[in-house]
Each structure stands twice: as C-alpha cells, then as structure tokens.
## 1
Amino acid sequence: MAENSVASRLQGTGAFALELEGVGRQFGALVALAGIDMRIAAGERRAVLGSNGAGKTTLFNTITGDFLPTSGRIRFFGEDITTLPAHERIRRGLRRTYQISQLFKGLSVIDSIFLACRGVSRRRFSLLRPAATDVNMVQAQSILHAVHLEAERDILVATLSHGQQRQLEIALALAGAPRFILFDEPAAGLSPTERRDLVAILNALPKHIGYVIIEHDLDVALRVSERVSMMHNGRLFKEGTPEEIENDPEVQEIYLGGRHG
C-alpha cells in the first residue's frame, strides 16, 4: 500500500522523473546524440532499444553525468541537472548499472550491499562495525531478498555466477532509496533461466521506482517496460507501447531483419 501511495502521489503531480530537451553529445566531429527529446513519468518503466552504435549507452552516460551534453538540457524530477557532476545526481536518487560488471570481487555479497547502502547515507564515514539492527544492514537484508540472493549471502562475489553478479549489480543500484534507475543491458550473457529470473526481479521492484532499460534481448525488454523508445544513429527513431514496437514492420525490418514473430 505504501509503495502504491508513493507512486500515486508522484504521478498525481504530473511530475516527470526525466526530461530531456534537445540533448546532444559530440566527440569531435562525431555526433553521438542529436536533439534527443524525451519525457519519462515518475514510476514509469521505459525500454530504449536500437542496434549497436545507435547512441544508447552515450545517452545513459549523458543522463548520469559521466559525459556532459554538448547541447540541450536534462531535468530530474523538475530540477535542472545538466551540469551537475555524477555524485550529485546520485545524491538526488539517480542510479545506474553498467554493461561490464563493476563489483568488488573480494567482498561477500551482504558486505557489498551493506557498503552500497552505507555509501549513500549520512553515516558513510563511520568506522563502527554495524549491528544487526543497523538501518543500513536492515536495508541490505531487504535488498538481498529482492534480488533473490539470500542463499549467497555470505559467499565471496568472485564465486558468483555471471547471472548472480548481474543480480548483485541490481542490488547495488537499489541501495539508498533510489528514485530512478538506468539498467544497461542487464540480461547480457544470461541463460534463459537467468533471464526469466531477471524479468521477475525487475517486475517486482517497488512501483514508485521508475527505470530505463537498455537491452538487446527484445523479449526481456518488452516484458519489463510500459513504453519503448527506439534509437538509430544517435536520434530517436520511434516510440510506442511494447505491442506497437513489436508489431511495427519498419522496426522488424531494420532491427530484427523481419524475422521476429
């Protein structure tokens, strides 16, 4: 009930989690993004699809502050964050995962999640060993359950399977009460069983947490999103519902070779 209440309040205000207005990014003469206009509502789940080189990851890097846009504006829940550094965007509730795992292999699963929770809290510089009732440890236990890693609680990250490491990355993105998450190809390299588990995890996230997912696996992307944005050569090519995108002949021809059925 509380999750639905938060989502309803955000959506009732007409708030947008993300607003991109004419966002562009150039690397010398290379135009990686050109005039991207996009609005994503609070609590919305959006997929961004496109072939390699379409500009998807550059879009993420621009939203998170890894790259600053060379043109346009970015707003996060109404606040202009166009020139804010990445750590300030994190403090405002923006999170992301990466295509390549960014994990501390020598830590246990629970310690990794705990440190992620502590890292965005006011007590992040405390040297005291946490008690079982520590608020960050309690949150870490809850996140552990949400990403289906309870059985792996105390094992080293280095011993996790590739799929479990992807689940742990989602866990780290959930630390510290995020308002919006960017998932960069979370299904890459996963087995069919692991992909089904990923879909279940994403669909079970609290309703007030919106996200954008970049994903080459169309079946995964369409099962976890409410709306889809297609990119091509650094531009928005087409937008629609998952059903509209899946059945669009032009999308099938350009991105799927007309073979998706």
Note: The longest strand covers residues 16-27.
## 2
Amino acid sequence: MTNDPNSRDTVPTAIDPFPIRAIKRSVLVVLGPFYFLYIAFVPLLCARRKGFRGWYWRLVKRACSRLLWLLSIRAEMSDADKRALAEDTGSIIVINHRSHLDGFILMDVVPDEKWFTFAAKKELCDSKLLHTGFTGAGLVEIDRNSGKVAMGTLSKAVRDMPTRRSVVLFPEGTRTKGESLGEFKAGAVLVARETGRTIRPIVIHASDRLQPRGKFFPRSGTIRVEALAPFVCDLKASVDEDVARLRAAMMAVFDDG
C-alpha cells in the first residue's frame, strides 16, 4: 500500500474537514441549480456581443473551478506543464477518461491562455436552452450515427479552428473500468493526420477514486494531471501503429502514476 493520494490502492485523503465539506455541499445543492441556469441563459442575452466567446469561455472555466471547490476537490498540475500548455498551438488534446469529473478537472487546471473545446454528440446540442451556450463555447457537434460523417465534421472543425484552440477528444471513447487505460479508437490520430496538427496527450490520474461508477456525489480529494510532450504522427507508419504508440506513451505515465 502506498501513501500517494492518487494511488488506486488507497482511499483519497479529504482536503477539507467534514463540517466544511458539509457546508460547501449544502451551498452547492441550494444554489447550484440557479448558477447553472445563469450559465445557460447568459448566451441567450449576450451571444451576439463583440468578444462574447472569450468572455463566456472564462466564465465557464470559473464555474468549473467553483464547482470543484464546493466539492472539496483540488486539481494539481506542475508549473512546467501549465507553461507548456499556455504556449501550445496547433494541437489536438487527448485525455484518458475515468469519471464524470474529468472534463471539469481539465477546465480548471489548464491555463486561460490555452483555449480548447470539446467534441460532443449532437443530441446534447438539441436542447434550445443549451444550444446557444454550446455554440458560443465552440462545442463541436458530432453525429455518431455515421462514423464517416462524424470524422468529416470533426476534421473540418479542427481545420477551421485558430491554432491556439484545440479540440479535446477521449480516445478510449467512454469511461474505462479497468485499472489501466482502455483501448484507443483511431479518431484523434486520423484527424491529426488529416489536419497536420500534433496531438497533446494529457493524463488524469485516479479521478475514479473520487467518483467511482454509480456514485453521484464524489469524495473530497486531490487529482493530479500531467501534460505530455507533443505527439507527432508518423505518416510512414500505419494508423494502428500511431494509435498504439500514443496509447503506450500515455499508459506509461498513467501506470507510473
């Protein structure tokens, strides 16, 4: 057994005493729905204003950070990794996926200088209440009913993005159940090859220790995040070889965790 708070062999160490956690979560339960509605309705009023996307991006990031604070969850990333991400351009971000916390953690820990957005299934954007906000945040809508159409949509969206912005992809496709990384799908590699972008791998350690499957309210604790060096596709190799090389690089960091 290890004392590492991110180890999958230990129960995470809470970062706040129980009374503080209870107060924070009570505030979240009472005020959280109103704050969510505020975030959702703001685009309906401000989406056409000049500079809206940059302002709304920062608003959403701050909302994710506040949510984690109310849940007594801390995200940690080294200063060197933050500097590397702040200067990152021309990339696609790929991260492993272990819990519902992963997107919020990424929004909290990545510096403001690095803009990114998510690819999400089209059904999430069908809600009239959420559509304007998702569009304002630059969310990439993907129709999963057709893999070919989805890849075409994603590749076009990435080509049209400014170089400072990256789309975030989960190469495992869904939350993994095993102790290590799941099998990777080829989407990120295919898009990188088609657009000429590099891949910036990011590894999230043990977020499932704070929120296992089936658990609604996560535990308090610390989640460590690492940004790896840019991954450059080898056009002389096969797509499967690039996928295997990317997974091996991320798995080495995750398993060393």
Note: The mean pLDDT is 88.
## 3
Amino acid sequence: MKNIDVCLTPDLLHLHKDTLENSIVVVADVFRATSCMVTAFAHGVDCIIPVATIEECRQWQERGYYGAAERNAKMVEGFELNNSPFSYMDERLRGAKIAMTTTNGTLAITRSRNAVKVLVGSFLNLEAVARYLRSQSYDVLVLCAGWKGRPNLEDTLFAGALIERLKEEYSMMEDSAIMAWRMYNQGKNNLPHFLANSSHIRRLQRLGIHKDITYCLQHDLFDVVPVLRGNTLVCIEV
C-alpha cells in the first residue's frame, strides 16, 4: 500500500530528505497562494513561475510576465497582482504568463523540486488532486506552507482533508498524518468556525479580507491540478 505523510512546515522538510525523491509532494498554502494558483489556472492562465524572492519575480516581470508579489499578506508595490484569488479571475489574464512570489507558498514549492512531482493543492481542487494521486504509484508527502517556518492550522486541515479522501488507498505511517486527519474530521463540518481564532485568520481579518477566507475554504470548485515542470507550473485536468 502507498504511504501518505505530512510535513507541517518547510523548515522540517529536511527530515523527509530520504523519501522526497520517491514521493509526490503536494504543496498547500490555503490562505492564499495555492488557492490563487488554482483559481488562476481555472480561469485560463497559461503558466505560473513560482519564485522565492521579490528580486526574482521582478526579473521575470521585466521579461514580460505579469508580476504577483506578496509579503506579510500585502501586495508588494510595483507589481500587477496581489495574493487574493479574486485578482486571478480577470479576463485579461487568460493565456497570460505569471511570475509569483509569496511569503510562504512559493518558497515551499521551490524547496520541493527534488520530489518525483510537485503538485499545488487547495480546498478548491481537493478532489482533483485526490483523483490524480489515486492514479499514481508513488508515496505522497503533503507539504504545508505554514507561516514563516511555523505550522498553521489551515494548511494542516487541508492535509487532513486530502488524507480523508485517500485513506482507502494510502497508509498513514507517521503521527503528523494522523494528527492532520483527526483534526480535519473534528472541524470539517464548520471549517470557518474551527479556524476562527487561528493566527492567519486574525491576520487577514485585520486587513479586511473576509471574502478571501470564505472563498478559500470551499471544496471542489475546480478540476485542475497545477504541476511543476522544471521551474514552471502548468495545468493538467483530471
């Protein structure tokens, strides 16, 4: 039976180095990077280059890419796009190429490049990711982007939700997977309430981004799976 594990923050990814090269990594940054990426592809974006730094993003912007840059949940001055999924529903982005850097999510993606494959996951494409993984023969590691090296609740809940969808095909070998799965089942009937006092919810609410929170917690809106090929995310439909 295949195994599924959870890394609660990219700062712990080194503990999985022995299994990374034989696993598919699913990166989750629910609030809001991976939700933005899924939304962008669902609305016709051609590709997204995730980069770790603002400087790299600006270099791609200078080559004609749309630049999307966020730090501390706020848009960086001088770029066209922010970290709200609603920004990626714009018709002008259909067929566009985007370079993106965020506080946590793009860093998690760039750190995962030694994996067999790197997928982008969110609640918005949860079943699409699960369906794709059922067709694969590899173990899975869900990498939670967290917040500046610390675990967070929403990404851990996504990991638990994915495990819930895959529990007939995958074994949970480590406690982090069991923790995430049990936590999701505890809160799944009302995720907004379960997350009400979480640190990133409070951070976003101070910025008045209530609609982003509600949107990002919706399940199974899109049948798209972003996958990393080289340094570029492209979309596969499943």
Note: The chain has one domain: 2-237.
